[in-house]
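Think of the structure tokens as a kind of shorthand, similar to the way a musician reads notation: each symbol stands for something richer, in this case the local conformation of the backbone. In the example below we present two proteins back to back. Begin with the first one, reading the sequence and then the tokens, and try to describe in your own words what changes along the chain.
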Amino acid sequence: CYAFSTNPSKIIDLTTVIHRTQDEGLNETYQRFVKSKKLEGVEDYLSSHDRQFPNNLILSSETLKSSNFKKIDIPQNIYSTNQIDKEALDKSQYGFLKLPNVYGDLHIIDGQHRLFGYSRSSKKDKHFINILLYDKSMQDIEKMRTFQDINENQDGLDVSIVWELYERTLK
């Protein structure tokens, strides 16, 4: 799994949504159709707020391989200069990820409305979106489970909290 940030404009054309249809069984697809009302809501939000979305888009690639990632080594003096205990860090690797330049290669598991809401926004080249990208080793059943986990297990925000936050954020 790779984590990175990019401008929405740089990734929109590389993405696709595998929609559920009457013709295909559940073993083939899982994603709902894009809702124009939701897209309009995202567009309105982007035009009236100077904020980006803090949550990740979840994508998978049909062609991404480990060879698309070039690791960079962090010089040892960076750790000592910044008083970072290298052994306390996780085992993440830092580097450059070359995305496949194939239209529709990146399948959206979660975040289709957030991403496509940028398509007509003037902020698509200014904002950054956070992405978790799985390579081709992610099986369809894993994609379905991830989609299900995200959409089935998240709780809606309690109305009383919404009003309390709204009151405090107006200042």
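Once you have a description of the first chain, move to the second and do the same.
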Amino acid sequence: GRPIHKLIGGSYRSEVTCYATGLYFIDMDRLVEEAVEEARGYVEEGFTAVKMKIGLGDPKLDIRRVAAVREAVGEKTRLMVDANHCMTVPQAIRIGRELEALDIEWFEEPISPEDIDGYVEVTRALDMAETDDAGLARLRDRKQQRERVEAAVRDAMSGLTFAKAEARLRD
């Protein structure tokens, strides 16, 4: 009957930062302008972090949009991007390097979530957090990211057998 956070050692923090998610591709003739307007609106509403969609099939346009939003919201606003698995590993690395120069906090779902080896490669190539649906975005340290990916691979290969063996060792 105890809360989970107490079972795992207590609270890590007392509050969390909420971020606005949006900046989708609505008006294809005003992609940059509408992203800037929407992002400014979120900041005016009090958000200190914004996550935007990228992955139009034109990396230069994606970078132009992100750069324009970065300029509009300023350096103090945390900015993240979500590509919804639309890139290959080489594409993700190329665009990721440009995103790093724009102080992007994390690069969400650049490639297929099933491509664990690809995530390892992207993680090794970039200095910002990349994330899949397993939540790697919360791990800003590259060593932690690598350990998480390696753990995910180990878990996928070993599954319950690994967990049972580990539990036996703890007994």
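Compare your description with these statements about the second chain. The helical segments are 4-7, 31-44, 59-73, 89-101, 116-125, 142-170.
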